[in-house]
Amino acid sequence: MDTGIIFSAISIVALCLQPLYGFIQDKLGLRKQLLWVIGILLLMSGPFYIFIYAPILKMNVIFGAALGGIYIGATFFAGIGALESYIERVSRITGFEYGRARMWGSLGWATATFFAGFLFNINPNINFILASLSAAVFLVILCFVKVVKIDALGQLEYGKTSQLKISDALGLLKLSQFWALVVFVIGVSMYNVYDQQFSVYFSHQFATQEEGNRMYGFLNSLQVFLEAGGMALAPFLVNRIGAKNSLILSGAIMTLRIVGSGLVEGPAMISAMKLLHAVELPILLIAIFKFISTRFDHRLSATLYLVGFQFVSQVCASFLAPLAGYGYDCIGFANTYLLMGCATGVFMLIAAFLLKGDKHLKSVIRGTVNERVTN
Question: Which of 105, 135, 182, 287 is the most buried (most CB within 10 A)?
């Protein structure tokens, strides 16, 4: 339950910053100022975890959770959304699939998790030191990243971006499809809560904690390697069946994964359920950006992603993390997973009726074109 409180604090800070990060990145367009800020915060991660966060948590969980929430929420939970939305915007303007770029992030994650379990058993601080070193590499690479040169249409979009006003972002609240997307995201937000303490559940399937940590490192690494392959293939599926159907498919796989984790027993079957994440996540990430870019104003892509997806996920996580921790303590991991999976399934059914499909989108576009021709 203490762990749930810590994750809840992180989520609360992240949900406060995500709308701000989204609007700032939309105002900046393709400029890198926000990425520099995130990179510097990442560079501080090693000293923060080792010399500040861990000692304070030992003295006072509530104060430590609040302090950690501010740093981790601003750096990782909100920062990843800003970085992903930046890459998606570049991919949309220059004409490559976002999933192919995101694949390399998954490969990096897989490489890190492969060694994390070993290093954690030796000394957890090694992982935190390597995190700062990775941030240093990120900052060096960022120095060589040039602002993308864009064509005339891109120039128009880029020029319009700087004219964004708060009223443009607030106008999203009047759109029915924005709220339909929120309903969907409430359902899929369960995957964040599910993942937070899954390593604890998994490690208990083994004779010793050390063996469990080591095997979880292998499992997580395998999952993310598979996820990287999924990132390369998911655009073909999403383009084939459409953004809405892809979102619902990812939600159905997520429901199966969470419910299945509560029904199966033993390391092998539990691992199989966890590996479904490698199928679900690539479809979800590609589809959410496709949905946003085809249903809403392109200028607000970062705001929509960070508010409509990341922000809502963190709102839900901030409430659900302590409840999940309480459930793990009182009724066990398996029963808690069953409840979480059923809740996800209900929201997926509702979202299936609320989200507009690609046929509706095509009819709207056709009507707009006909109206312009008539005029």
Answer: 287
Predicted local distance difference test score (pLDDT) of residue 173: 80
**Residue 133 pLDDT greater than 50, yes or no:** yes
Residue type at position 102: R
pTM of the predicted protein model: 0.72
Query: Which CATH number characterizes residue 364's domain?
Result: 1.20.1250.20
Q: Is residue 177 part of a domain?
A: yes
Q: How far is CA 308 from the centre of its chain?
A: 12
Query: Which of 151, 246, 258, 244 has the alpha carbon at shortest distance from 198?
Result: 258
- What is d(CA 334, CA 58) in angstroms, rounded to the nearest whole number? 29
Q: Rg of the chain over CA atoms, in angstroms? A: 21
Q: Which of 231, 254, 236, 246 is nearest to 355 (CA)?
A: 246
Is the residue at 375 inside a domain?
no
Distance, in Å, from the CA atom of 191 to the CA atom of 213, rounded to the nearest integer, reads 21
The helix (H) or strand (E) run that includes residue 218 is helix 209-241
User: Is 87 domain-assigned?
Assistant: yes
Domain that holds residue 149: 2-368
Span 293-315, average pLDDT = 77
Q: 3-state SS of the chain: helix, strand, coil percent to 5?
A: 90, 0, 10
- 374 found inside a domain: no
